[in-house]
Amino acid sequence: MTRTRAEVYLVCITLVWGSTFIITKILLQNVTPFVYTALRFSLASIIFIPFFLYKKIRLSKASILSGLFLGVLLFLGFISQTVGLKYTSASKSAFITGMSVVFTPFFQYIIYKSIPTMGNILGIFLVLIGLFLMTSPFDVNFNVGDAWTLLCALIFSIYIVYINVFSNKFEPSLLTIVQFLTNAILAIVFMYVLERPILVSNTLFFALMAYMVIMPTVVALFVMAKYQKYTTPTRSAVIYSLEPLFASIFAYLLKGEILNLRGIIGGFLILIGVLVSELTKNANN
Questions:
Q1: Running DSSP on this structure, what letter comes out for residue 230?
Q2: Taking the CB of the first residue and of the last residue of the chain, which one, N or C, has fewer CB atoms within 10 A?
Q3: What is the pLDDT of residues 31-86, one digit of tens each?
Q4: Which domain holds residue 75?
Q5: Do residues 167 and 107 touch, judged by C-beta distance below 8 A?
Q6: Domain tally for the chain?
């Protein structure tokens, strides 16, 4: 596997993830967040289990615990993002979620005692300005959805650090199936504890849910676990920073969501901040 081919795969899954914001927002009109998450990961588990069994992978306590840990982080991240999408636009959700690659250096410092570079600090500064312009946190445009999505970005920052650690130690398909099962079980439990489950199904719902299960869940998460190790974390982070751009395009094409000039400038600054942070880190390395 060449680095170029691996990076092409990562670009492809980033494009897929960019489509999920607006599709999830559409689905949440017919289903509650925990029911949605339970369906998504239960079906993903059913689809992925035969592939996992076919590979006849040897299990170990360390690999299962690592998968469980990643699964909990993924669950918390997805739930925060899903709840956030009920109250904010798909474009804003995508841009705020993109901040995770800028927050990552701080969690790297906590976990590895690796000090963020000046480029990281400059990137974070640019991102915060961009976030302010996009969400207007001091007026009515800043809502609870933005706060939930910011929490999602923080959680995914931790996830990014640990997926790099565990994917180099354990079989990607094992980590993937354990994450799927963990998310499915947790979603089912919290569905009955915290929600009054609602599901209004129709043809469009089933079509969009099938897409969400297969492409951004089964395919994308497995590709991430399998191929990210063939390139550097910095290059991967830069590739993932394309997600907000793709999300804005899908939001416009599918639902006509348009950012105003202030939002466009803010989104541009967020992308520049992400690139400055990650590319400067790469140069220093």
A1: G
A2: C
A3: 888 899 999 999 999 999 998 888 778 888 899 999 999 999 999 998 898 888 88
A4: 3-284
A5: no
A6: 1
